[in-house]
Amino acid sequence: MMKNALMIIFLVFASCLYGAELTVRPDKLETVVAGSCIFSVEIKTSGSEILTDIQIDADKTFQLSMPSISTSTIIVNGQKSSFHIYAYSIYPISGGTYTISVKAVVYDGKTTRNITGTLPVFVKGDSVPLYSYDRTSSGIPVLTAINPVKMAMTVSDPEPYVNEQLVAELSIYSKFKLLKYPDFIYYPSFNGFWTETGDSYFTASQIHTEFGTVYKYSVKWILFPVQAGTATIGGAGTEIVISSYPLLPRKLNLYSDSIILFVKPLPNNCVPASFKGSVGNYLISMEAPRYIDSTAEICVVVSGTGNIKGIEEIEIPEINGADIYFASSEIEIESREPHLTGRKIYRWTIIPYSDEEIIIPPLQFSYFDPDLSSYVTSQTPVCTLGITGCASSSPVPSLTDTLPLNSEISVLKFPGLPDKVLFAAFVFSASVFTLGTARYLAKNSKVFTRKRNRSNRYKTYLKNAIKYAHAEDYDKSFDFLKKSLQSFFSEKESEKMSLKEISEAVFELTGDRSYEEIFARLEEIDFTEKTAVKSIIYDIKAVERLYKRIEKAGITISRRL
């Protein structure tokens, strides 16, 4: 009997010595509403015990951060003890007396035990609302310990004109620095807009307000509304990590509200004949030599602020005394901050066929200025080109034209080959050339046939894409444009490349990355609403210029790029 009693006492003592323990520090908390404080939970396990779970039951009037966890192990005389420390920060939003309950679940290989603890919390002050949308005098949201971070979408003008340049900015305002930039962002949808990227990713800045310093992280887009009426910018979302104390990260999910814009149509009165839809602020200029000989290049530049990529082609009227041929056009983006600025450059080749001066009339470019709410026309001055020589005005000189009448001419005569010998040599050379050409064509007939068929296919597909775009059947237009690209960049009809593969092929052929944006946009086009008319037409023209650029360079297209 005494032996059993001693055994029970030993087991109780051993469980107290080596059993799991839970300690909450401090033993109580005293704070104020909208203040923040820290408490820690320490769990000691011994021997084979394993901590499987820890649960914190706090009142809804607290905002609880993610814990900072540390673990250490001590072995004394062969006995192992582990210490698990969980540190939390809390943000009370209502005054009163509360109790935070803590429960740890421990498993020793046979049984599961629950260890509990409590922490009394005394909060002074009145209740405050969970969300506060007040703003500072500079328009920055007011941030508190309860709401230390907010996310908002803003636009430069809520009532723009059609094709007017807008800047949409998605901003995160925070009382604390972000521990890292967001790993992912659910970007907003831009329904009814032609979109250009502004800042490639978040940029950071500090703003000093009457309520303290605010950290701002923002990303921007440049938008151009494509039609009058309402247009929607969808909501965005992300997850960030902040910390007001070292080693105490706090994860927050942020969302922004959608924005509805009212897009105004362009006025119908006093529309210039040269207006083709450009909105912004532009200037047209011309560069040409004062004198030309047999050929020269004329350069026309449209520069300014607005939808540079959407500027329509400029045409030069027929010119007396010269032929003029379109050579190329290119776009140069000079800046994306704070607005999209750049220029579009057109080049023509002029070939005179008369000795008279060539007069190029003024070229006009009309646009709508949203600041003035009126149409503006910019034009080049009259350009006069002097001729120092021309392609067909210099006849081949003859002896009677160039020699004086009394000149003496000594003519040296050499014996010629008989006519029959010359004829036989001609027949032999022609036969050899004909046989060689026939043999080469016989060997490479399939190659020529395949190239000819491929050329016919991609040109036919491109014509169909243009036809259906003007007919506002954008689904078919996009399908034919994609088929045209695949036919152009594939040797066989069965070997079709994806738009991504074509994009890489274009870069390897030209070293130009600007076409990647076009192919990426083609993959993301949504034709459920008829808002892509300008987008698909611009992309078709860009693809057509790409074909001409590659063919002009004489590059051989191969599936094995």
Terminus-to-terminus distance? 92 Å
Number of helices: 7
Kindly state the number of beta strands. 29
Rounded mean pLDDT is 75
Q: Could you give the order of strands across the largest sheet?
A: 24-25-23-21-27-28
- Biggest β-sheet, characterized? 6 strands, mixed
Structural class: alpha+beta
Helix content: 10-25%
Instruction: Tell me the strand percentage band.
Output: 35-45%
Radius of gyration equals 39 Å
- Runs with pLDDT <50, length 5+? 8-17, 129-137, 391-417
Identify the overall geometry. elongated
Please describe the topology of this protein.
Blueprint: H1 2-18, E1 21-25, E2 29-32, E3 37-46, E4 50-57, E5 62-64, E6 68-76, E7 79-92, E8 96-107, E9 112-124, E10 149-155, E11 166-174, E12 185-186, E13 190-191, E14 193-197, E15 203-209, E16 212-225, E17 229-233, E18 237-242, E19 250-255, E20 259-263, E21 275-287, E22 291-292, E23 296-306, E24 322-335, E25 341-352, E26 358-360, E27 364-369, E28 374-379, E29 383-387, H2 399-402, H3 419-470, H4 474-488, H5 499-510, H6 514-524, H7 533-553
Helix pairs in contact: 3-4, 3-7, 4-7, 5-6
